[in-house]
Structure formats: structure tokens, C-alpha cells
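Suppose you are handed a protein chain with no further information: no name, no annotation, nothing but its sequence. What can you learn? This example shows the usual starting point.
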Amino acid sequence: MARMCFMFEIFEGQEAEYKKRHDEIWPELVTAIKDAGFKNYSLFRRGVHVIGYFEVEPDVKTAFEKLGKSEANARWAEWFKDVIVNLTDNQGNLLEFKEVWHLD
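A reasonable first move is to predict its three-dimensional structure. Written in C-alpha cells, the prediction is:
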């Protein structure tokens, strides 16, 4: 199992909309996320800053490859273009935090 923590920003004034869309997350997207191997997936927001955490089996690359094939994920990403400022760097990688310590 692999763990990942990442961050991104949403546009100022879109905080309520960001929350609303997640309150109404599509069941087919939840299924795609789970089928791709994601577990224990959480998002936390403070102002316009969002931090995400998830665990995946067997690894991050494989999980994202599987999720990337999902039509629901593609629609979700398109739908959030007016809400999210930056989710990835210029190479398309999540703005990831490196793990320093973990308590099992």
C-alpha cells in the first residue's frame, strides 16, 4: 500500500461551490475511485487551500492509470475547471507532499 498527501487551491469565492459539488459526488465516480484502488481518501479545506490524503493499492502510478481511464473521472475534472486553480505542476504531477514520518 502507498500513501499520498497533496495540495491545491480553489478560486476565491468558490469555497461553497467546491463543498456543494463534493456533497453531491456522483456514485459512478466513487465506484471508479474505489475500483482504481483508492482507500481512506480525504480532502480538507482551509480558505482556498485544499489538502488531500489517500492510500492506494498497489501503488500511486497504477491507481492513477486506472482512474484516468474512467469517463466519470474525465467529466468530473472538466466540471471542476472553473473551481480549481491548480491541481498539478507543469508536468501533470499532483502537488505532492513527501512523507517524513508515519505511525502505524
